[in-house]
């Protein structure tokens, strides 16, 4: 089988050598490129390679205001050599990625992953005219400027599978079967059919009126192959490239700040394409590759430069020199082995201010930032006699700054982060730190802090739990804006179905119990305080006072979660926020009976020997008797329905919640006749809200998760598919055991039939209803 790749390009000289070499590496034998009046050396680079027979080059200038892309595709299709079996239409920031692992060649040498065996399988069916591959959108990974290295190795953080734009697909076609192009994503076939990467018939995404949205698939399929879409790259590359070029498919479409912020998703680390970097660099260094004409620097208009400067200032603060006499970073370092603790990778160094500014050292903060929504601020609180001694050799009169050292931890799997210097309201960049992600920390994975009187607390995790408690984590202006947009969107979504809404934030255990039992001192401000100060936060419930009133009965000593009595108190506060009268709610639980039993919990079970405590468990009521549907998935993607006919209120309460919601089911099920729960950590799927038309809408998350803003457009179908794809064989068996089926007519009545079908497509179950 022979594969060719077709694309229209404009001013892509900086990345085209990598793009061409990469696709040769995965099996492409020819390229068809339409140049759209490039001015940066792209045309010359392509012309030389066309002269060597590597590609077919066409000139496709923009005619008037007509977008050039579809016309270019028509010409590229017509120019396709007769011996090409499959032609892929993609863009220069899209990379076709085989998902199969690398194999071995006949000689026994490792062979790079190839698309060709998979393509032969998909096109073995003579009825298949096109195979569509979904996007996997990659974010900026926090990069502001264009750094050295390949695109595929610099950007290794992508959106989750359920991210809406991943529904876009690109088409791989039998050239002779194409009748035309509906849009850059979808081809019309003169014969044959479209299938997805799994070989199943393509199902289009539909709009609210049930019309097909060609170019968007209903399911995101990454099995076999996908398209890695480096959709924004760094801020500099975005502004100088995609934003400046505009759209080749839609006249007047400007890809600006909103486009960048919507698509700059860095949810998960993915290094499949990056793992090819050594082989790819070797291919690019082969004879003939280096003879390509050097790309000319793009001519940036003054307006682009101003926008870039403004964006850089927003990201890293003023660019004048930091007021530092000397500073150094001890860890991480290329000269030292990584230093890891249970709480993460150690970052250690020192900052010495000029002598005349030494009094300001107590107000100075070292800022670590790895995601745009939050930052961690650490004081200079460590004495460094080694540094002071070195300064004394330079200044015999001494230096008045006694504390100049800092030490903190960042997540061990972090590949790079930014260090900045903050003094009052001024911020200066110090260094972008790059390091190899640690596969496991040297101290193990205990992540438990032992407090007073046997109380256990979570150590720093990826959400910097301890640093949040100490008041060192702050939501950035971008994070606060994202929360404002989320809360406003939640309110609008509730308005569309005409129901009240509330957001329940489960307080961190440290916030409630920490002042008495935590070894660290609580800080003055946490992200939850910033959130509650927003004008859009009127519907946010953070029941600290209600939990504190329970004393030691609020949380489990050896677990991060609240007790069942704590869950009851939170349920009462939530109900009051939704408009239920307290005098009616509180008597519902007044007769509850509890009994104590020993339990380890998610913290106690990590210790050796295992540490347990006595916890009060509800014995007079169980929601388990009233489950009527449960898809059985663990955590994200779980869908559960509880119906209790004697509940206080008629109607449905729809909850997009987290693990903290589970202990509330015993109480919420007695307040609302039907409870529909989706485990999503507060991420919303508007399609579920529209389908179920709830009487009450609730989102529930935990305070320590607030540094990551939930999404307003998360797909439950995508979450289900993503979860099933990650399940082991043993986990699939456990899901089948836990599933509780419901009749299709009941699922239709609840508005949930579509999501049961999604699961059935991936994981058929034994019927037990």
From TrEMBL:
Q: How does it sit in the membrane?
A: Single-pass membrane protein
Tell me which Gene Ontology terms the entry assigns under biological process.
alginic acid biosynthetic process
Alphabetically sorted, this entry's keywords are:
Alginate biosynthesis, Membrane, Periplasm, Signal, Transferase, Transmembrane, Transmembrane helix
Residue ranges annotated as transmembrane are none
Domain (AlgX/AlgJ SGNH hydrolase-like) spans 448-597
Q: Pathway listed for it?
A: Glycan biosynthesis; alginate biosynthesis
InterPro entries linked to this entry: ALGX/ALGJ_SGNH-like, Nucleotide-diphossugar_trans
* Location(s), subcellular: Membrane; Periplasm
Question: Is the keyword Ribonucleoprotein in the record?
Answer: no
Care to name a GO molecular-function term for this sequence? glycosyltransferase activity
Q: Which CDD domains match?
A: Glyco_tranf_GTA_type
Q: Which domain of life is it from?
A: Bacteria
A single GO cellular-component term from the record reads: cytoplasm
Q: What is this protein called?
A: Glycosyltransferase
């Amino acid at each position: 089988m022979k594969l060719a790749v077709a694309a229209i390009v404009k001013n892509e000289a900086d990345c085209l050598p990598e793009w061409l070499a990469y696709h040769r590496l995965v099996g492409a034998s020819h390229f068809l490129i339409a140049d759209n009046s490039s001015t940066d050396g792209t045309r010359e680079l392509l012309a030389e390679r066309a002269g060597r027979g590597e590609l077919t080059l066409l000139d496709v200038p923009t005619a008037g205001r007509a977008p050039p892309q579809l016309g270019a595709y028509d010409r590229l299709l017509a120019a396709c050599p007769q011996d090409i079996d499959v032609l892929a239409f993609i863009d220069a920031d899209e990379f076709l990625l085989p998902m199969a692992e690398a194999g071995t060649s006949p000689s026994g040498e490792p062979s790079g992953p190839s698309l060709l065996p998979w393509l032969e399988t998909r096109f073995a069916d003579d009825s298949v005219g096109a195979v569509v591959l979904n996007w996997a959108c990659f974010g900026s990974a926090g990069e502001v400027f264009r750094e050295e290295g390949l695109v595929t190795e610099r950007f290794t953080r992508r959106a989750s599978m359920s991210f809406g734009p991943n529904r876009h697909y690109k088409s791989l076609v039998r050239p002779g079967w194409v009748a035309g192009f509906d849009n850059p994503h979808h081809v019309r076939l003169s014969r044959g059919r479209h299938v997805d990467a799994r070989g199943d018939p393509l199902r289009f995404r539909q709009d609210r009126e049930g019309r097909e949205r060609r170019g968007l698939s209903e399911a995101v399929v990454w099995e076999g192959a996908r398209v890695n879409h480096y959709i924004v790259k760094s801020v500099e590359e975005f502004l100088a490239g995609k934003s400046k070029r505009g759209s080749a498919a839609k006249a007047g479409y400007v890809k600006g700040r909103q486009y960048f912020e919507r698509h700059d998703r860095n949810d998960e680390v993915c290094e499949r394409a990056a793992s090819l970097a050594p082989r790819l660099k070797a291919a690019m260094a082969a004879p003939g590759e280096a003879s390509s004409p050097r790309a000319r620097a793009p001519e940036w208009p003054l307006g682009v430069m101003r926008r870039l400067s403004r964006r850089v200032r927003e990201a890293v603060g003023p660019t004048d020199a930091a007021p530092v006499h000397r500073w150094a970073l001890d860890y991480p370092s290329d000269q030292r082995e990584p230093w890891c603790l249970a709480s993460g990778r150690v970052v250690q160094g020192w900052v010495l201010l000029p002598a005349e500014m030494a009094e300001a050292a107590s107000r100075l903060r070292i800022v670590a930032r790895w995601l745009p929504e939050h930052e961690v601020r650490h004081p200079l609180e460590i004495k460094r006699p080694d540094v002071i001694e070195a300064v004394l050799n330079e200044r015999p009169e001494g230096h008045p700054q006694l504390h100049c050292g800092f030490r903190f931890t960042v997540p061990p799997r972090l590949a790079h982060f930014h260090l900045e210097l903050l003094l009052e309201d001024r911020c200066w960049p110090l260094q972008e730190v790059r390091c190899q992600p640690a596969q496991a920390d040297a101290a193990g994975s205990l992540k438990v802090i032992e407090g007073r009187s046997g109380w256990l607390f979570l150590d720093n995790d990826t959400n910097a739990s301890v640093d949040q408690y100490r008041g060192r984590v702050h939501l950035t202006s971008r994070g606060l804006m994202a929360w404002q947009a989320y809360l406003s969107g939640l309110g609008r979504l509730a308005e569309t179905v005409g129901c009240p809404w509330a957001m329940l934030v489960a307080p961190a255990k440290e916030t409630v119990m920490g002042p008495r039992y935590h070894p660290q001192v609580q800080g003055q401000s946490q992200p939850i305080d910033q959130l509650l100060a927003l004008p859009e936060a009127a519907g946010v419930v953070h029941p600290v006072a209600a939990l504190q009133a329970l004393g030691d009965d609020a949380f489990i000593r050896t677990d991060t979660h609240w007790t069942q009595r704590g869950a009851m108190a939170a349920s009462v506060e939530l109900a009051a926020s939704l408009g239920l009268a307290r005098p009616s709610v509180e008597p519902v639980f007044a007769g509850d009976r509890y009994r104590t039993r020993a339990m380890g919990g998610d913290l106690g079970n990590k210790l050796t020997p295992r540490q347990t405590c006595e916890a009060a468990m509800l014995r007079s009521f169980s929601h388990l008797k009233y489950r009527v549907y449960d898809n059985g998935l663990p955590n994200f993607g779980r869908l559960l329905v509880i119906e209790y006919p004697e509940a206080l209120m008629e109607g449905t309460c729809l909850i997009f919640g987290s693990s903290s919601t589970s202990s509330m089911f015993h109480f919420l099920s007695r307040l609302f006749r039907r409870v529909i729960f989706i485990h999503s950590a507060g991420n919303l799927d508007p399609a579920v809200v529209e389908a179920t038309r709830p009487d009450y809408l609730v989102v529930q998350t935990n305070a320590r998760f607030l540094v990551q803003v939930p999404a307003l457009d998360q797909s439950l179908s995508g979450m289900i598919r993503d979860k099933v794809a990650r399940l082991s064989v043993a986990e699939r068996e456990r899901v089948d055991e836990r599933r509780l089926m419901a009749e299709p007519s009941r699922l239709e009545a609840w508005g949930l039939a579509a999501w049961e079908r999604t699961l059935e497509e991936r994981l058929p179950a034994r019927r037990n209803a």
